[in-house]
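ugh ok fine here u go
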Amino acid sequence: MNIESPGVPVRGRSASGQGLTRTDWASERIDIATLSASSHERVDYWREMILRLFADVEIGALAVPEFHGRVRSQKCDLLRVSDVSASAQSVNRRHLHARSRDEDKYFAVLMLQGQECLEQGGNRTVICPGEFSIYDATRPHYLNFQQDWRQIIVSLPRSSLNHLVPDMECRTATRVSLDTPTGRVLRSFLETLCAQVGEFSCQEMARLSESAVHLIALALGTSHTGDPEHSRTQALTLMRVKVYINDNLGDPTLGAEQVAMANGLSSRYIAKLFEREGSSLMRYVLRRRLERCAAELLNPLHAGKRISELAFALGFNDLSHFSRAFRAFHGVSPTEWREANGRNSS
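structure:
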């Protein structure tokens, strides 16, 4: 694609139609559209929008007078929620790896209008209005829209779902049924969330994002039909346990007995579930606390908080142990992590 270097503001048109503006691609709130008088400029700007906001892909679209595209989105550290609509086109991702941290995502898609064909990793599916699917932005994929379309795209870090949903790579480009209690809640949640995009505070967006991740994980947990019934039940149970753990990381007493009691399971059974992943419950708890703490250290909402406050809020009660574990996991100390990303440490 013929584009400028990432990070450099480019000239485009805002959705309000007030003429040429400088697009701040790093903004938490985006509302932009292809309103240029030239059809070729509209297609070029659409390619720019997709690259800057989503992933480095090749887009095939006709530069015709009626071509249009619009993105309304809001993001936080955990994810981006976007209302995207455009004309017929194809999207082809050839790269094998993410080119930046911002591209290391899964894209969860709820179709609102039109039809989309997705292909990835040997899977192929077609989704229509009201249907849901997910694909990995870092791996080759092909998308095709044969008519005008509109969809909700939730861009979320791959690690956030990989920790909750077993065998995620097998679930991409498959149609996920929303004709279940969880599926209906997910659809309603995403439609309501998207209707208010751009109006949430940073704090509200962060809290809603955690709910979105868990709902998507729950919907995906019931979607994989290739596993035997017993394995599928175990996978769903493990995901339910992980959701509980992630909701209670701030409890310093969180342990096997509490997790087992809250989920109506035995500690031994939970241990066997984690053994299937080559891990253990408490190793999982520690890893999630360290990952969450790393994210909180970079969160602008916590820029004024001491590192010790964040560590205690996530269930650590020994700062020496926390510092050693953080360095062993992330390769740097908590202070170095925060300073390297432009935050003040304390």
